[in-house]
Amino acid sequence: MPENTGLFISFEGGEGAGKSTQIKILAETLRERGFEVIVTREPGGSPGAEAVRHVLLSGAAEPFGVRMEAMLFAAARNDHVEEVIRPALGKGAVVLCDRFLDSSRVYQGTTGNLEPEFIETLQRIAIDGTMPDLTLIFDIPAAAGLARARKRADDGATPDRFEKEELETHEKRREAYLDIALNEPRRCRTVNADQPQDKVTADVLSLVEPLLEKIKARTDVTQ
């Protein structure tokens, strides 16, 4: 296993929280500063995982139950970690990932009603020790996030099966994410996503910048 000299940041939150937009902005900012940046996503990110992504988001796996879906997510995550994330970190890159293991905890665990022990066992196998250095949890009231997601659909984007679910389900997921942030404060930071985009961007950068010196130090040691 290559030594981790990079920086791994995951972006989490409910539908319409603006994660993807902020990932693009942060990636551009870091590249301008001379960092190698890998932008990826889950489910997906590697060829094998992208094939699973289509099955999951289309709803094709839904008839087989949430337990099967959780196993598919874990299989896709393992391929993603082994083929993309871990090699990039070994080269000293900054990896920005749109969703990671916390999404499984929330979507399949909290609102899928799967046992926490089952979810955690799957995740332990899937990630094989590769945890984010920082997880940014984008918090927005469920109604506001869904309104954004539906506006995207009005603009031509096709809503996935998760965006079509009831407001109460989305609010439960929001609460679950906030619980994760509360229980894992060393890794997780909450970002108020219900504010102007430039303010969200500034908040994200303020949370990431302290870690940039860390990656520089790691890189210097290996040179």
TrEMBL record:
Domain annotation Thymidylate kinase-like: ranges: 11-203
Annotated InterPro entries: P-loop_NTPase, Thymidylate_kin-like_dom, Thymidylate_kin_CS, Thymidylate_kinase
Gene Ontology molecular functions: ATP binding; dTMP kinase activity
Group of enzyme by EC: transferase
GO biological process assignments: dTDP biosynthetic process; dTTP biosynthetic process; dUDP biosynthetic process
SUPFAM superfamilies membership: P-loop containing nucleoside triphosphate hydrolases
Pfam families listed in its UniProt record: Thymidylate_kin (PF02223)
Stored Gene3D superfamilies: P-loop containing nucleotide triphosphate hydrolases
Enzymatic reactions: dTMP + ATP = dTDP + ADP
Keywords: ATP-binding, Kinase, Nucleotide biosynthesis, Nucleotide-binding, Transferase
Binding of ATP, residues: G13, G14, E15, G16, A17, G18, K19, S20
EC number(s) from the headed UniProt entry: 2.7.4.9
GO cellular component: cytosol
Keyword Kinase: yes
Function: Phosphorylation of dTMP to form dTDP in both de novo and salvage pathways of dTTP synthesis.
PANTHER family on file: THYMIDYLATE KINASE, UMP-CMP KINASE 2, MITOCHONDRIAL
UniProt family annotation: Belongs to the thymidylate kinase family.
Protein name according to UniProt: Thymidylate kinase
Organism whose genome encodes this protein: Rhizobium skierniewicense
